[in-house]
Here is the input.
Amino acid sequence: MKVVILAGGYGTRISEESHLKPKPMIEIGGYPILWHIMKFYSHYGHNDFIICCGYMSHVIKEYFADYYLHRSNVTFDFTDNGKMTVHSNVAEPWRVTLAYTGRNTQTGGRIRRIKEFVQDERFLLTYGDGVSDVNLSKLIETHEKSGKKVTLSAIQPSGRFGVLDINERDGSITGFREKAQESGSWINAGFMVVEPEIFNYIDGDDTVFERNPLERLSKEGKLGVYRHKGYWQCMDTPRDKGFLEQEWANGNAKWKVWK
Here is the structure.
């Protein structure tokens, strides 16, 4: 399955760094958070990535253009016309499509713009600013058994996020609320499995994926959920970045499931 990563936003709440680079390129432990997310998916055998670029897309493109060189030991012999010899390298098993999806396009519009790369296939979808140890295999299994058009991973954090209303009988998401009113509420963790029919729910560049498409699917009983009770952390603010940096430095990065 292809992995679609939304990486085109401005990241205004972490503008101290995002004025220099797109938010997914902000580093945790010396590596862009985008790299951490890709390593996570790769651990589960998903190595075909479609990255939805927008704001400062050239930074992401240049990173991958130079990735092989930066990860290799090389000799430049200027006595031999600048001949370059690669001695060893750390090659990833990745295929990476960098798609420019517009500078001001909303999340749904970005997904719609990469339809030509996904075509009629089921795909995985996530955001370029959050890490987790969600079990992707179980998430996909839950989706396949449910027959839903989209399955969200859901977590239970503190109450500053919007809330999902879940039908306990069949596992469908039936609605959304702006803020948690009580403990135990579930929110969208951002790791999703999506059927290609989703493109029928997206009108254009102004479509916010989390609004009309998902709300329509929930009303139709076609939006499922996988409850994740493990680790999840977004990187919205400098405080979030500092927290992730500390966990990485302390060897406590629970999202690091790869060797």
Q: What stands out?
A: The first strand starts at residue 2 and ends at 7. Residues 94 and 188 are 27 Å apart (CA to CA).
